[in-house]
Amino acid sequence: MLKNKTALVTGSTSGIGLGIAKALARQGVNIILNGFGDADSPKAEIAALGVKVDYHGADMSKPSDIEDMMKFAADRFGRVDILVNNAGIQHVARIEDFPVERWDAVLAINLTSAFHTTRLALPAMRAANWGRIINVASVHGLVASAEKSAYVAAKHGIVGLTKVTALENATTGVTCNAICPGWVLTPLVQKQVDAKAAALGLSNEEATKLLLGEKEPSMQFTTPDELGELAVFFCSPAGNNVRGVAWNMDGGWAAQ
Ligand code: NAD
């Protein structure tokens, strides 16, 4: 069904992005990876699934890097059929203590980069009358937590961008939707577990339980594989008329 399509997944050298890239590759989708982590082992894992894979190291906070990556994708694969805007960073501090440079970085990487990739990917998707744009937002695109002003603002922003992208393409074969995970145990979250353990003198296991217990009624992490399967659904024919949703996979977090 998706064989020989091409997906560009930003921030896919680890975590959720890599999980989504692998789920799409299992459907026969060629993959362009991006991110700052080691690219060799993700590339090998994806190639082993029998699809073509390439990597571009664009810094998603830099519009000129993003333009270069989109040109690279078009040169190597013809066009990007599936765009997954996933790259993201976190910074935790109260507003009055929030470093201005960190605010700018979170907004640039978690929100503005998706505007750039989307504006650059849309013309070829529209010409083909088929495309899927999947924005990895967060449950923090739907509800807030203290000390995450930049992240919550960026994630609410990307849910808004998702809706506008969906509306502007509603009569075409191009859809845009957002995925809103609760806690997923990736390097981004392990850092928050470590900070809790250090601040409260807890073991890793105790700090993990505390983190889950504060927000996630299921007391379970969502996995990158589960999120990958949701992305596959958005790309499937059954997803043809799913447009502008912000679909949470959060163990009941936003239901409270
Ligand atoms: P992660 O740290 O494992 O992955 C982030 C990826 O983004 C990495 O590949 C990293 O190299 C890349 N990256 C960071 N800065 C970059 C930059 N300037 N340019 C290019 N790549 C850059 O984190 P993750 O948890 O997998 O996060 C992926 C996305 O999922 C983020 O948008 C995050 O906000 C979102 N998310 C994560 C969770 C969670 O619990 N882990 C929950 C909800 C949403």
Automatic annotation (TrEMBL):
Domain of life, per lineage = Bacteria
Q: Which NCBIfam families does the UniProt entry name for this protein? A: PHB_DH, PRK12429.1
PROSITE patterns reported for this sequence = ADH_SHORT
Q: Where is the Ketoreductase domain?
A: 5-173
Record CDD domains: HBDH_SDR_c
Residues forming coiled coils: none
Please spell out the taxonomic lineage of the organism that makes this protein.
Bacteria, Pseudomonadati, Pseudomonadota, Betaproteobacteria, Burkholderiales
Q: Which family does it belong to?
A: Belongs to the short-chain dehydrogenases/reductases (SDR) family.
- Record the organism: Hydrogenophaga bisanensis
What name has this protein been given in UniProt? 3-hydroxybutyrate dehydrogenase
